[in-house]
Write a structure and sequence with these properties.
The protein is α/β, with parallel strands linked by helices and 192 residues long. The chain is built from five helices and ten strands, in the order E-E-E-H-H-E-E-E-H-E-H-E-E-H-E. It folds into two domains: 30 residues, no CATH class; 132 residues, Dna-directed Rna Polymerases I, Ii, And Iii 27 Kd Polypeptide, Chain: A, domain 1.
Length: 192
């Protein structure tokens, strides 16, 4: 096992996913309890931080190479103190303007602040809060119809499926970073 990507309950046991999803181990509940509770640190690894930086640079590069109408950095979000690290709008009549905020750790409070500022935003129509890691509760605020989606490098997880991602985001994730999919993390209480 080279890297741990996800830990989840699976029926009456625990499923551990490793090596970019290529290895999955299932431990029965009794075996897992004997091993003790495994908790992943919320601190991102150097590799996760490097992948986060590669994603940010890849999005800007992709937009520049593909003639996006808007490619700007450090953009204010409405009248709030929140800022987007990157704002992209593809060319075309039905293109949406997407704001990206990158953070080493995505927390619930950040999601709530971004949702609040986006509600009064007129320039950016949807937003992604992208982190090297995200605390579990951070996925509850984003996704669905809210306009703010949360994406985590660790676990390659997102509050929306890969089919709902902004096309430029999925292109960079899949083509530049080699992601095969994103793990959908449904908001708490959701029927997704």
């Amino acid at each position: 096992m080279e890297s741990l990507h996800k830990l989840e309950t699976a029926g009456d046991g625990v499923r551990l996913v490793a090596n970019s999803g290529e290895l999955a181990l299932v431990f029965g509940q009794g075996v897992w309890e004997a091993l003790g509770k495994l908790s992943l640190p919320l601190e991102p690894t150097e590799d996760e931080l490097a992948e986060l930086e590669s994603l940010k640079a890849g999005l800007a590069e992709h937009a520049g190479q593909n003639g996006f109408a808007t490619v700007v950095e450090d953009v204010p979000c409405g009248a709030s103190p929140e800022r987007f690290d990157l704002v992209l709008r593809p060319s075309g009549p039905f293109a949406l303007t997407t704001g990206y905020v990158f953070a080493p750790v995505v927390r619930r409070e950040q999601v709530a602040r971004l949702e609040a500022c986006l509600s009064g935003e007129t320039f950016v129509e949807g937003a992604y809060l992208v982190g090297a890691v995200a605390e579990e509760g951070a996925f509850s605020g984003g996704g669905g119809d809210e306009g703010v989606k949360v994406l985590s490098v660790r676990g390659r997880s997102c509050s929306s499926s890969r089919f709902e991602l902004a096309p430029e985001l999925w292109r960079v994730l899949s083509e530049d970073l080699g992601w095969r999919n994103v793990e959908l993390v449904a908001p708490v209480g959701s029927e997704r």
